[in-house]
Amino acid sequence: MRNLPHTFSDQAVQPSANGLDSTDSDTDPHTATPVEPPRRYHRQFADLPNQRWFKPILVVVLTAVFYLVALVAEFGGFFVWALVSLGAGGDFDAWSESLVDFNTPTGVVFGLFSVILMWPAAELATFCIYRRWFSSMISLGRGVRWNRLARYLLLSASVWVVCAIVMILFSDGAIGGLTSGIVWNRNVLVMLVALILLVPFQAAAEEIIFRGLAMNVIGSWLRHPAWAVLIPVPLFVFGHLYDLPGLIDVGIFAVIVGTLTIITGGLEAGIAFHVVNNLFAFGLGVLAGADLNATSSPTIEVVMSIAAPIIVGILVVLDHRRRGGSVSRMGVLFGRGVARQ
Length: 341
What we know:
mainly alpha; 12 helices; globular
């Protein structure tokens, strides 16, 4: 699965200003040979013109400020909607509780949208400091590689279908009850529609913040990719309210998708798996009538949740190598892996 290490060029990579219209091309169209990027994904801030050590800090601070402003605006918008829909005599206590209750349509929409707002905050902050949108850095200088994203979505969905079948057949929790059928009602339908519409943006926002932005901030100071992969993991883990097995699951997920980001030179693998993972996790929970606020899960569900990213990670690496990419003998976290475009 691994090749000998390669030497990096010191030439800087200049991300394209057009971040969301890149198509995937694993080879140079003129030479039909793999193109080796001079720098790896986590060094994009370091390679930008007029880079200074403090600029990534400014990006983080501005992202936080913009995000807080967006959250206030979001709450204000939901409050106005509540005033219109409930009227002056409405039960605002129950409404406010529904905002943080993922078992309600209001809670699903509010919760997912709260995460999505991190994305535009990071985009605006990056533009203010570097005069380019962060979406142009989703992959090494090329924005989103749509063909690659589609390929990884298919890989992730295939793995999760198998994992979901195992969970349904062997779980002793609510998901196991799906073998007896699904109870349809208006709330289930509304929540499923909300999940389908919002989860892709929610998952992409988390990858952009915890892999894209965090890894490039750390990589602007520390060259070794292991730091960029591992340092953001605790932040991502403790942003999830689970018990210890659940937190371990999230940690393994974060390490795998961070490593895939370095290997493939972009966020597509992480975004694809994150989208599919959350759609299956939330979707199965809604269909089974499970408590979406629960902080623990049956053992078989945790096992499948851990197995899925491991299997997808292996398949992504194999696909990457088959298309001309390389991973060193000792692995990317030891500083010898190379991402090819």
